[in-house]
Amino acid sequence: MELIAHRGLSARAPENTLAALRLALEERADAVEWDVQASADGIPVLLHDDTLDRTTDGSGRVDAHSLMELRSLDAGSWFGESYAGQPVPSLGEALALTAGRCDRIYPELKAGMSTSVVARVVDEIGASGWATDTVVLSLDWETLGHVRRLSDLRIGFVVEAVERYGRALSLAVEDGNAIVDPDRRILLEEPGLAKRAAGAGVELAAWTVNDAGEARRLLDMGVESLTTDDVAALRAGLERA
User: Fold this and answer.
1) How far apart are CA 90 and CA 75, in angstroms?
2) Nearest one of 206, 212, 205, 207 to 234, comparing CA atoms
3) Are residues 193 and 218 in contact, defined by beta-carbon separation less than 8 angstroms?
4) Are 114 and 140 in contact (CB under 8 A)?
5) For residue range 138-149, what is the model confidence (pLDDT) as tens digits?
6) Looking at residue 86, what is its pLDDT?
7) 100 Cβ partners below 8 Å, 6+ apart?
8) Closest by alpha carbon to 123, among 107, 103, 112?
9) CA-CA distance, 14 to 79, in Å (whole number)?
10) First vs last C-alpha separation in the chain
11) What DSSP string runs through the chain?
12) 177: closest CA among 152, 145, 159, 151?
């Protein structure tokens, strides 16, 4: 079983900040997941949304702002005053912070990322020493194709709808170094889908799992990795169960 901290420890710190990553590491998360967007000057940064409005005091599209402009924003106050002044981290900062402190990382590349930015992500992961313990995720499978053409990094096909599951599984089998990472509800509603992955020899993860009962069902299906907002809480729930 691998417990993956979703956007860092996002239940108790502002998502995709260094504070959230630090808390995840302190809670001994097996792995950490974060989202990657690109600044206007092509620097990979940690943000989930295409726009700044929800998780910073800025507004507008992420890719309309330079790294310097993004770094000047407050990415923590929306979550709580104790996190006021948390900056938008770069990918490089996240890689450096987590190095040697968890087993795997799961950077999720958001849709529409240019090939030049994908190349920079690949280069930064390689230079950080994380290459053999990284799974690059995306809902945008064309972006994963760019990753594959540039590297032999492990990739993960994120699946948000049951209609895309079969294609994701086929692509993972064809690739030979890939996982499938569906919304947990897809597997809970149709447990036979997990058996299909096992039969094809494809590793399964699932997101976002915060209930210990659901986690137990998924683990019993053969799901190996669970992405959760609160690693410690889910681990404790599983131990009680």
Assistant:
1) 13
2) 212
3) no
4) no
5) 999 999 999 999
6) 98
7) none
8) 107
9) 5
10) 15
11) -EEEEETTTTTTS-TTSHHHHHHHHHTT-SEEEEEEEE-TTS-EEE-SSSBSTTTSS--SBGGGS-HHHHHTS-SSTTT-GGGTTPPPPBHHHHHHHHTTTSSEEEEEEPTT--HHHHHHHHHHHHHHT-GGGBEEEES-HHHHHHHHHH---EEEEEE-SGGGHHHHHHHHHHHSSEEEEEBHHHHHH-THHHHHHHHHT-EEEEB----HHHHHHHHHHT--EEEES-HHHHHHHHHH-
12) 152
If pLDDT is split at 50, 70 and 90, which confidence band does 241 have?
Answer: confident
pLDDT tens track for 153-199: 999 999 999 999 999 999 999 999 999 999 999 999 999 999 999 99
Tokens of 237: 């729930």
The answer to whether residues 97 and 34 touch, using CB atoms and an 8 Å cutoff, is: no
Measured distance CA(143)–CA(121) in Å, rounded: 12
The token pair at 182 is 């569906």
CB 193 within 8 A of CB 165: yes
**Is the CB of residue 156 less than 8 Å from the CB of residue 139?**
no
The tokens for 39 are 């600044």
